[in-house]
Task: structure prediction
Amino acid sequence: MRAWVENLAAIGNLMLWLLAAGTLAWFLFYFFLRRLLRARRIAHARERRMLREAAERERAGDNQSR
Result:
């Protein structure tokens, strides 16, 4: 009976270790993934702004030549 309880305790400890490792891995993945997505969104917004400003300059140049 005692060996059965010890095996059950060992399995419980293993589950806790796996839960702790999984939580840490999830946090790090979520943290870095969020930073990468934010950087990508900022770069995309910057590119859209540059294209919009270039189009506005082109339209302004067309209006001045007329």
Remarks:
- Residues 31 and 64 are 49 Å apart (CA to CA).
- The two ends are 96 Å apart (CA to CA).
- The first helix runs from residue 2 to 65.
- The chain has a mean pLDDT of 91.
